[in-house]
Amino acid sequence: MNLYKDIPAYANKAKNEINMIVEITKWSQNKYEYDEEEGFFSLDRVLHHSMFYPFDYGFIPSSASWDGDAVDVVLLVTQPTFAGCRVKARVIGCLKTSDQDGLDHKIIAVPIDKVDPRRSDVQSIKDLWTHLKDELLIYFKEYKRLEKEKYDKIVIEWFGDMNEAMKIIDDAITSFHQKHPHISVVQSASAKNPGLS
User: Which of 73, 127, 166, 171 is surrounded by the fewest CB atoms within 10 Å?
Assistant: First the structure.
């Protein structure tokens, strides 16, 4: 199975639920990336800063953002999972950023209630406590501080609401199918991969 091409982006679109593939686990300083064509994980780099990822981080399968890569996801988990773990997650908003490669927006999500009920009260970006939002803003600005060729090009705009987040995802799904026209636009997780339901 190719974790990028063989899994649909949405777990349940009506409920704003996505499939998310974890690349980097909470508390890690290792930046792992999934090779979307070859289907394996590799260590891209160890963060140059003493910071670590305060959340699980990964991507939405069957999506292609402005730079051609899958859409990034910040997953607010209680405990770290593992690289390659597929998580059903509920979208709550996004963080709009750009870097040396252009637009680099992040979808912000929480595990669905069945997976972890501790975020059930978080229904939108407005429900995130102020301190956590400040942490996210600081993290994405500062974690590349010692990568001098990248740091000055990072621009952190602000948080986007659910509508903005869902538009980013829908546009990325369209781009994915333009990039991979041989893959069916209508994918059924239960039909194609029974283990995903």
Answer: 127
Cβ atoms of residues 101 and 62 within 8 Å: no
Residue 144: strand, helix, or coil:
coil
Distance CA(115)–CA(104), nearest Å, equals 28
pLDDT, tens digit (0-9, with 9 covering 90-100), for 142-172:
988 898 888 888 899 999 999 999 999 999 9
Pull the structure tokens for residue 91: 């979208």
* CA distance linking residue 163 with residue 19, whole number of Å: 18
Of the candidates 155, 158, 149, 138, the one whose C-alpha atom is nearest the C-alpha of residue 45 is 149
CA dihedral sign of residues 14, 164, 173, 140 = negative
CATH (residue range 10-176): 3.90.80.10
For residues 109 and 179, give the distance between their C-alpha atoms in angstroms, rounded to a whole number.
25
